[in-house]
Amino acid sequence: MSVQAALAKLPSPLRDLVTGAAQDGSDFGKSEKDKAEVAEWIDKAAQGDVAKPENFKDLEAALVPRTYLVSNYFTAADVALYGALHPSLSQLQPAQYYSHPAITRYFDHVQSRPSVRKAAESLAPAFSVVSFDLENAPHQERKAEPPKKKEKAPASKAEGDKAAAPAPKAEKAAKADKAAAKEQKGEQGEKAAEGKAQKKEKKAKEPKAAEKKPAAEDAGEPVPSMIDLRVGHIVDIKKHPDADGLYVEQIDFGEETGPRTVVSGLVHYIPIEEMRDKYLVGVCNLKPANMRGVKSFAMVLCATHKDGKDAGIELVQPPAGSKVGDRVYFEGFEDSQPLSQLNPKKKIFETIQPGFTTLETHEAAWVNPETKSVHKIRTQAGECVAPKFVGASLS
Q: How much is the pLDDT for 133?
C-alpha cells in the first residue's frame, strides 16, 4: 500500500492533521522500505484498533525501545498515531497513564513538535494539548534480571543410587589410600600415602571457591572502559523550576524503563532550541544525584573549549547512523565491560577525565597520560565528535 492510499483512509480531521504536520518529503519516508512502514502505520491508525485502550499493552511493548515508529526519525506515521491516540489519552487520569509510560512519553514527545502543534492549532479543539503530571510519576526501578537457573538432566537409576549414597569423608578416603599404598609398596609406599592423605584432608578443610569473597569489580587502577557511555536522544527538555542555569531533560537511552531524567548545567552555554531532539553521548553509570530538588540519573558528555567555558561548550555527538542505546566504547577496550555503577569514593571518572580531549579531526578520544596512546571514543558506526572544537576538554 502506498502512503497516499493509506492517507486516503484516515478520517477527517486526522488526515488534515497528518498532511499539515508532515510537509517535508522525508516525513513520508527516506527509503522505499521506510515509506512502506509509514504507510503500514498510517493504515493501522486509520483502522483505529491500535489506539484503543484495550490494545495499549501491545502498543506499549512496541514503543518501549522506540523514539519514533519508523527508523530513528520523525515521520507522518507518528502524527497519525498521535492523532489516533488523542481521544483516549486526553481522557486518562494520572494513575492510568502512569501504567503506560512508553505510550505517555511517546505521545507527549510528538505533540510537542512545532510542526504538529502548528497543524493541531489550526484544527482546534480536536487536538488540544494534553497535559501530563510527569513530575509526580512513580519512580521506576531499573532491576537487573535474576540469573536463570540451569535445570539438571534427570539421572539414570545407577547414578541416582550413587547420588543417594552418602559421600565418603575425606578421612576415610585418606585411610583407603594409605592401606592401598601399604599393600603395594611397603613402608616407603605407606609414607608416600600418608603425605597424600594429609594433603587430601587439608584440601577438604579449605573453604570452597564459592564461599570465598569475590574481588570487587572496580578493583585495580581506573581505566576508561569502566565508564558506561551510551547514545541517547533528548525527547523532552525544560528549564529547571528552581535553578536558572539548569536544564531538566528526558533522555531516551533505549531502556525498557523509558527515558531517564537528566539535569545539565548548560542553560548559559547552549540555547534550548539547539538541545531539543538532539542525539548525544551520556555517562550512564554515575550514582544518581539530586540537583536542586531534581534527581539526575545520567550526565551529558560535553566538549568545553580549550580556553574555558566562556569560549564555548558543545555536545559530543555520536556518528550518523547511531541508535539510542548503542554502546559507546574506547578503541583498544572493545571487549571490556563498564561497571554497573561508579563508586564516588574511588573517583574513577575524575581520575580518567583529564585524558578526555578532542583531536585535530574533532574526534573525541582518551589519551593515556603515561603512554600517550590515543583511544578514540566511538560506536560501531564510527567516531564521536565535537563539531567545532579541537583540543577541548570532555566532561
A: 83
For residues 47 and 41, what is the distance between their CA atoms, to the nearest angstrom?
10
Q: Are the CB atoms for 142 and 255 separated by under 8 Å? A: yes
C-alpha cell at 102: 512508553
Rounded to 5, what percent of the chain is helix, strand, coil? Answer: 40, 15, 45
Nearest to 28 by CA among 39, 17, 14: 39
Give one DSSP letter per residue of 273-299, joined into a string: HHHTT-EEEEE--SPPEEETTEEE--E
Distances (CA, A) of 284 to 44, 87, 226, 230, 389: 36, 36, 11, 7, 24
E-strand ranges in the chain read 229-239, 247-252, 260-264, 279-283, 289-291, 294-296, 299-300, 302-304, 313-315, 327-330, 356-358, 364-367, 374-379, 382-383, 393-394
Separation of CA 98 from chain center: 21
Task: Give start-end residues of each CATH 1.20.1050.10 domain in the chain.
Answer: 3-121
Average pLDDT of 130-144?
68
The three-class DSSP label of residue 72 is: coil
Q: Can you tell me whether residue 376 is helix, strand or coil?
A: strand
Task: Please name the amino acid found at residue 219.
Answer: A
Range list for CATH 2.40.50.140 in the chain:
224-394
The partner residues of 378 in beta bridges, in order of sequence, read: 329, 383
Q: pLDDT tens for residues 56-66?
A: 999 999 998 88
Q: Is 224-394 assigned to CATH 3.40.190.10? A: no
Q: How many CB atoms lie within 10 A of CB 246?
A: 20
The cell numbers describing 376, all together, are 578514540
Per-residue CA distances from 145 to 14, 129, 141, 142, 217 (Å): 41, 37, 12, 9, 19
What DSSP letter does each residue of 115-136 carry, written as one string?
HHHHHHHTTTTTTPPPP---TT
| Torsion angle defined by CA atoms of residues 339, 340, 344 and 350, in that order, rounded to the nearest 10 degrees | 40
Domain covering 3-121: architecture: Up-down Bundle (1.20)
Reported confidence tier of residue 164, pLDDT bands at 50, 70, 90: very low
